Amino acid sequence: MTSDVLIIGGGAIGLSLSVELKLRGASVTVLCRDFQAASTQAAAGMLAPDAEKIDNQAMGLLCRRSCALYSDWTDKLEQLTGLNTGYWPCGILAPVYQGQVEKVDALGIPTHQSPYWRDQAAIHQYQSGLTAEVVGGWWYPEDGQVDNRALANVLWTAAQSLGVQLKDQVKVEAFLQQQGEVIGVRTNTGIIRAAHYVLATGAWSSELLPLPVRPRKGQMLRVGVPEFIPELPLTRVLFGENIYIVPRRNRSIIIGATNEDVGFTPHNTPAGIQTLLQQAIRLYPQLQDYPIQEFWWGFRPATPDELPILGGSHCQNLTLATGHYRNGILLAPITAALIADLICQQKYDPILSNFHYSRFHRQSSTFTPMFTHSANFSQVSHSPNSLLPIEDQTNYRSTDSPLVIAGKTFQSRLMTGTGKYRSIQEMQQSILASGCQIVTVAVRRVQTQAPGHEGLAQALDWTKIWMLPNTAGCETAEEAIRVARLGREMAKLLGQEDNNFVKLEVIPDPKYLLPDPIGTLQAAEQLVKEGFAVLPYINADPMLAKRLEDVGCATVMPLASPIGSGQGLKTTANIQIIIENARIPVVVDAGIGSPSEAAQAMELGADALLINSAIALSQTPPAMAQAMNLAAVAGRLAYLAGRMPLKTYASASSPLTGTITN
Ligand SMILES: Cc1cc2nc3c(=O)[nH]c(=O)nc-3n(C[C@H](O)[C@H](O)[C@H](O)COP(=O)(O)OP(=O)(O)OC[C@H]3O[C@@H](n4cnc5c(N)ncnc54)[C@H](O)[C@@H]3O)c2cc1C
Ligand SMILES: CC(=O)[C@@H](O)[C@H](O)COP(=O)(O)O
C-alpha cells in the first residue's frame, strides 16, 4: 500500500507534520533512520521568540505565530494521547551583568523605557538566587518551554494512535527522480513510493539533496534539584549570554548549550562541559551543588542565513521542511500547519516565500533553483548563421517536451565535449554551432591543464552552457568518486553553484575504453548518496541500465560503439531495450561518426546524444557540429512523427482507386 504522503525524518518537524496531515485525512508514512538520534531529543525545549532576539522580520513573525499556537496545539496532543508534553508558559528571564546593558531593546526603544526591561531590584525579585553580578534584565512573559523529549513521545504516540505508519530504523538513501518528479525513495529496506514526499531530515538533509544545511553541534547537561529543597527553586527559564538554564517541573534542570561548527563530531568534551558549568554557576551559583544527571550532545540543522527551508522544491511532489537551526521545537506547530496547508490544499501562506530554498541561488542571476536551469537558451542554435529554426519546424518541435535531467530543463538534445580540437577557437565555434547546452569536461584534464584544456573557464560562456564534469581517466570507483567531487567544485568556480551533475566514467582498460560495470554501479550508488545527479557512461547493457536507474541515477549513457571509434551504432538492439524500459533519459554516448548515425539513434527514441570525436576530428568541425545538431533535431522529430511500417513488398505511392480506365 502506498501512502499519500511519505515523510522522511521523525524529529519534531516530521512527526508534527504527520499528525497534522493525518488529522486532515491523508494517509501518512514516516521513515526514520533513528527516532532517538535527532536534534529534537537533544534540545532544551525553549520557546523563545522574544529572548532569541531574532533579527529577521519574517522569522520573528513565524516564531511568534508558532509560539501562539503552542497552548492549543499541546492541549490537542495531550487529549489525543493522555500524555503530558511539559508545555509551560513560564516566561523567560534574560539577566545581564554590568557592562552588558544595551542602550536600546530589540525594537530600538531605550532600554529603561522598554516594557521588557527590569531593573536590578525587580530582576532579583522575579527570580531569587541570581548572582549579585546581575544588574538588570529582560523579562519575556510570552516565551516559555516544552519538555522536548516528552513532546517527541507525545507526537509519536499521537501519530501511532491516529494510524500514521511509523517506520523506525529505515534509512532513506536516495530520492528516485524522473522528469521533475520523485517516483520513490531507495531505503535500506527497498524502494518505497508515495504520491507526495517531505524532506524533514534535519541536520542530515544535505545527504539526500544538495541543500546548504549543516550540523551545528550543541553540548548539554542536566542536573537535578536536590531532595532537601522542597520547592522548585527556579520557575522561569534563565537566558544568559551563551548559556541557558531551563528548569523542568519534574525537578530536572537543563543547562545548555555550546554552539560548535565541528560537523558530526560526536561526544561531550571536557572543554564544552566546563564552559557550560562555569557560566551556569556564575549566573545561578547554587547549581554548583546540584547532582549531575546526564550529559549529551546534538546537531542543530543550520542554514547559512539561520532561517529554515520551507516549501516547494525542484520536484513538484517533494516538499522541504528542514533547517530549523535553534528553533525547531518552537517552530514545529507552525511548520506542520503551513506545510499541511500546502500539501493538502495547495494553500500558500505568503510568509513561506521568505523560507524557500531558492534564496540560496539568487546570487547567481543566470541559474534558478537547485536543479532548474533558467538560462534563456535560444531554441536551437547560438549561431547567427544558423540554418534553424524555420518557422514550420519550430511549430512541430514545440509540441515536443524539453529534455529534463534531474529536474533541469534543456532545449537541445545534443551534448558535446571539448577534447581533440585542433584549436581552442575551433572548439568555441563548434560548440556554438552545435547549439548544445551541455558540454562535458574532463575534470582531470582541466586539472592538469592538458592541451586544449587550458583557459577553458574563459573559453566558453558558462552562463549559457551547463557544465557536465566527467571522470575520464578514472580506473576505479574510488578514483571516480574523488574526481566527481572535484568536478562539483570546478562547476562552483565557474559560477554554477547548484551544478551537481557528473558524467561517471570508470574505465580500467585503455585499449577498448570499455567501462567497468561493477565499478560504475558502486561509484554511482555512492555519488547519488552524496547528492550528485549521476549520468553514468555504460556499455549498452539493459540490466545494468536498470540497476543504475534503481540506485537513483539521473540518466543512463549507453555507448553506440567504442569512444572515439566513429563506428556508429553497433549496439542498436540493446539500446532499444534500454530505451523501452528506462524511466530516466537515455543518452546515446560515444562512437557516433556521422549525422545519419546521430539521427538514427534519436529515431530509436534516445532522449539525447553525446558526440565529441565526430565533430572535433572532422575537416570542418563547426559545420559538422551544426550538422549533428540538425541530425539530432531531425531524428527526434522523426521519432515523434512515427516511422512508417516496414513492408516486404512495394506498395504504389499513388492510389489506384479513381484512375481512369478504358
Ligand atoms: C543542543 C540543542 C539545543 C536546542 N534547543 C532548542 C530550543 O531550546 N528550542 C528550540 O526550538 N529548538 C532547539 N534546538 C533546535 C531543535 O532541536 C531543532 O531545530 C529541531 O529538533 C529540528 O527538528 P527536525 O525534525 O527538523 O530534525 P531532527 O529532530 O534532527 O530529526 C531528523 C530525523 O531525521 C532522521 N533522518 C536523517 N536522515 C535520514 C535519512 N536519510 N533517512 C531517514 N531518516 C533520517 C534522523 O535520524 C532524525 O531522527 C536545539 C538543538 C540542539 C542541538
Ligand atoms: C567527451 C566524452 O565524454 C567522450 O568520452 C564521449 O564518450 C564521446 O565519445 P565520442 O568521442 O566517440 O563521440
Automatic annotation (TrEMBL):
- Where is 1-deoxy-D-xylulose 5-phosphate annotated to bind? G564, A590, G591, N612, S613
First-level EC class: transferase
FAD dependent oxidoreductase domain boundaries: 4-342
Query: Which E.C. number(s) belong to this protein?
Result: 2.8.1.10
Q: Reaction catalysed by this chain?
A: glycine + O2 + H2O = glyoxylate + H2O2 + NH4(+); [ThiS sulfur-carrier protein]-C-terminal-Gly-aminoethanethioate + 2-iminoacetate + 1-deoxy-D-xylulose 5-phosphate = [ThiS sulfur-carrier protein]-C-terminal Gly-Gly + 2-[(2R,5Z)-2-carboxy-4-methylthiazol-5(2H)-ylidene]ethyl phosphate + 2 H2O + H(+)
Purpose: Catalyzes the rearrangement of 1-deoxy-D-xylulose 5-phosphate (DXP) to produce the thiazole phosphate moiety of thiamine. Sulfur is provided by the thiocarboxylate moiety of the carrier protein ThiS. In vitro, sulfur can be provided by H(2)S.
**What family, per the record?**
Belongs to the ThiG family.
Q: Keyword Heme, does the record have it? A: no
Please name the Gene3D superfamilies in this protein's record. Answer: Aldolase class I (3.20.20.70), D-Amino Acid Oxidase, subunit A, domain 2 (3.30.9.10), FAD/NAD(P)-binding domain (3.50.50.60)
Mind telling me what this protein is named? Thiazole synthase
